[in-house]
């Protein structure tokens, strides 16, 4: 796979590599991408209409049930060859992995220090104080949708993810920007490049002299700016890059 060899050669010469991933890297694990059509009873809703503070205020039970459904989907899925290849890559080169995904697949595949820009599907926080709520509390109040918050009398448990209109965790964003400013290679994998500030990371890296490759079967908002577009899936390209790196 010629493109994988080109990317591998660039990574081999790089002092540091930044990898940005989106929902597409989890598609081959059977986790629907964010803009995939929703299935079953959720098909009549658009994610953009559910993943908002307003939607939660309006109908906390509906939003809690939607996230419980998504947690079930993700828990039943497993990291794929793309996730595993990135974990392998981190053992071979200096790499920062930044993900927009909340599915925890990179962490389950063994990627160390994954920067989660949009939070974690399996964490719960108080809807008012945003303080973390422990799994034991959720289990003890599992019959309530959503469970009440232990941190505030008017609060509920809500998923620890970034909703539309909410700010990203500043420490995660700062770490991602720092990596963009010091990397020599930046890879964008499985993201449509439609949501900022995540989508701005490859451009920020290029402005600091980095070489930018995109891995995605479809063209995206980032494709025109890429130095190389690999029009293929993550589960095929990433293992080929690792193989090329190890000279296999
Ligand atoms: N390998 C690589 N890319 C793939 C694969 C695959 N096997 N399958 C699909 N893709 C690509 C699609 O072509 C698409 O460009 O993954 C991308 C998924 O795009 P989105 O569904 O828009 O997901 P993402 O880019 O992660 O969304 C970013 O937007 O909605 C918010 O917070 C949400 O984190 C999400 C953010």
Identify the notable features of this structure and list them briefly:
alpha/beta, Rossmann fold, 6-stranded parallel beta sheet, 16% strand, 9 strands, SIR2/SIRT2 'Small Domain', DHS-like_NAD/FAD-binding_dom, binds adenosine-5-diphosphoribose
What would you say this structure looks like, in words?
The protein is of the alpha/beta class and 248 residues long. The protein is built from 11 helices and 9 strands. The strands form 2 sheets. Strands 3-2-1-7-8-9 form a 6-stranded parallel beta sheet, sandwiched between helices. Helix 7 (105-109) links the parallel strand 2 (95-99) and strand 3. The site of adenosine-5-diphosphoribose (APR) has 24 residues, from helix 2 and helix 11.
Short description:
With 248 residues, this protein is α/β, with parallel strands linked by helices. It is built from 11 helices and 9 strands.
Secondary structure blueprint with pairings:
Layout lengths: L1 H12 L3 E5 L2 H4 L19 H4 L2 H6 L1 H17 L4 H10 L4 E5 L5 H5 L5 E2 L2 E8 L5 E2 L1 H6 L16 E5 L8 H13 L2 E5 L11 H7 L3 E5 L12 E3 L3 H12 L3
Parallel strand pairs: 1-2, 1-7, 2-3, 7-8, 8-9
Antiparallel strand pairs: 4-5, 4-6
Helix pairs in contact: 1-11, 6-11, 9-10
């Amino acid at each position: 796979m010629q493109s994988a060899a080109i990317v591998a050669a660039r990574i081999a010469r790089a002092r540091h590599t930044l990898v940005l991933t989106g929902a597409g890297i989890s598609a081959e694990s059977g986790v629907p991408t964010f803009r995939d059509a929703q299935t079953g009873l959720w098909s009549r809703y658009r994610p953009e209409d559910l993943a908002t503070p307003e939607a939660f205020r309006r109908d906390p039970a509906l939003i809690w049930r939607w996230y419980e459904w998504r947690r079930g989907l993700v828990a039943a899925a497993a990291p794929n060859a793309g996730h595993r290849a990135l974990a392998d890559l981190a053992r071979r080169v200096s790499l920062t992995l930044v993900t927009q995904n909340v599915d925890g697949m990179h962490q389950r595949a063994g990627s160390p220090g994954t920067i989660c820009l949009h939070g974690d599907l399996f964490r719960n926080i108080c809807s008012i104080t945003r303080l973390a709520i422990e799994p034991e509390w959720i289990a003890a109040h599992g019959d309530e949708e959503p469970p009440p918050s232990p941190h505030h009398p008017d609060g509920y448990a809500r998923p620890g993810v970034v909703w539309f209109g909410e700010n990203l965790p500043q420490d995660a964003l700062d770490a991602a920007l720092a990596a963009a400013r010091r990397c020599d290679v930046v890879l964008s994998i499985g993201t449509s490049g439609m949501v900022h500030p995540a989508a701005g990371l490859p451009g920020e890296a290029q402005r600091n002299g980095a070489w930018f490759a995109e891995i995605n079967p479809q063209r995206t908002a980032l494709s025109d700016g890429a130095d190389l577009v690999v029009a293929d899936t993550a589960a095929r390209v990433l293992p080929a890059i690792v193989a090329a790196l190890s000279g296999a």
